[in-house]
Amino acid sequence: MNIGDRIAKEMADKGWSEGELSRRSGVTQPTIHRIISGESNSPRQKNVEQIAKALGVTAEFLWKGVSSTLTGSETPYPRTPSEADFVLIPQLSVVGECGDGHLNGHIEIEGGLAFRRDWLTKLSVKPEHCRALYAEGASMEPYIFEDDIVLVDTSDRLPKDRTPFAIRRADGGISFKRLIRQLSGSWLLRSDNPDKAMYPDEEVSAKALHDIPIIGRIVWRGGQM
């Protein structure tokens, strides 16, 4: 057995999905999937330690299959986070494209990601208005990277200057763009990536922007360092 097999077995013994292990460990679900599938056979030690703590085993056990019991100095991740402290934010089945738009025929909810209620309060957002989805592409780097988790406030859809939003495109795709207001009153849909030959600005009139379905304002993004 390799590290991916051991993680998969521990997950199966506990009845956990990749999403559940991600929630408990803080390691992104795509990263966990790559380790389990064997696509990533040399994962970062920090990720392995976080996964091991969540599973209640040692990192050495996941690497080598030995010393599976935690020592007294190692504290496992809490098994049952309190609903009073955490809230499950619905995860959209789509992938948000940091570029021309990832084509999506429809949007569905698939599971969710846990966030601390007090942390959401500090962001000044209400849990019932939030949605989470994964990013794809490089056009919003260095603000958003591929596989980052992006949190969107669907109650905040009024265009604001220099603010990033999730936008539903006419072709059914989802894009992350920063809105820039022009002196003329028109707007730019801008990618943060400075390579404008690859990721040019898109100019739209105020009326055209009004007709573009804005899903919500991006309030947070997180991923690997």
Assembly state of the chains shown? single chain
Structural class: alpha+beta
Give the DSSP E fraction (strand runs of 2 or more residues). 25-35%
Rg result:
20 Å
The number of helical runs is: 7
Q: What's the pLDDT, averaged over the residues?
A: 83
The CATH architecture term of the largest domain is Ribbon
CATH level 4 superfamily of the largest domain = Umud Fragment, subunit A
Count of the domains: 2
CATH topology of the largest domain: Umud Fragment, subunit A
Q: Kindly, what is the distance between the CA atoms of the first and last residues, rounded to a whole number of angstroms?
A: 28 Å
What letter string, H or E per element, gives the SSE order? HHHHHEEHEEEEEEHE
Kindly report the spatial arrangement of strands forming the biggest sheet: 2-1-3-4-9-5-6-7-8
Count all strands and give the number: 9
Q: Biggest sheet, open or closed, and with what strands and sense?
A: 9 strands, mixed
Given as residue ranges, the uncertain stretches (5+ residues, pLDDT < 50) are 70-80, 101-109
Helical fraction equals 25-40%
At a glance:
By secondary structure, the chain is α+β, with helices and mostly antiparallel strands.
